[in-house]
Design goal:
This protein is of the alpha+beta class. The protein is 13% helix and 20% strand. The chain is built from 2 helices and 4 strands. A hairpin with a 6-residue loop joins β1 and β2.
Length: 71
């Protein structure tokens, strides 16, 4: 079994600000406040978390194909 990546660069769709973040290994992140413009991000419809919607790497639960709490 492959180890999940725990870092992802999240990009704000409002201002384009990017920041590398560490994701929790066993949970989805539903809200994220952009450090650039202050907008609160939430997942796009059909995604379980902000990393799946706006990150360069999907969340660890999605990476492991075990599902998320929002699947």
């Amino acid at each position: 079994m492959q180890t999940a990546q725990l870092t992802s660069t999240i990009r704000c769709p409002h201002c384009g600000f990017e920041k590398k973040e560490t994701m929790p290994a066993d949970a989805c992140v539903y809200f994220y406040d952009c450090a650039g413009c202050g907008q609160r991000l939430s997942p796009k419809p059909g995604d379980c978390c902000v990393f799946c919607s706006y990150g360069t790497v999907k969340c660890p639960p999605k990476q492991s194909h075990c599902g998320c709490s929002h699947d």
